[in-house]
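Annotated sample (chain length 100).
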Amino acid sequence: MSSSIADWIKSHQMQCYFKNNYGVECPGCGIQTSFILLLEGEIIESVHAYPGLIPMLISLLFIFLYINLKKNWIEKVLIISLISTIVIIMGSFLLKKFLY
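Output written by the structure step:
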């Protein structure tokens, strides 16, 4: 099943507006490829393609839990998770931009 989802996403991938028009990658470049790799079970390759995907998915899980359970501890973990995700995404973007 995940293979058919991955195949569908591969055939419907969107191109990055910034990369196409300005030749510059945005902080979201690589997320589709990373998601496809994750669906195919290639976890390490997925993290290499877009380090922020797994933390983003974990943050989405905590958002879902908070909306449904409204517990204070979930809110605190959610805030930490969201901040960590933003730091990972922006950090990997800056590293890719200036070191590679």
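Annotation: The CA atoms of residues 24 and 39 lie 27 Å apart.
Annotation: Helices lie at 2-11, 17-22, 31-39, 43-49, 53-69, 72-99.
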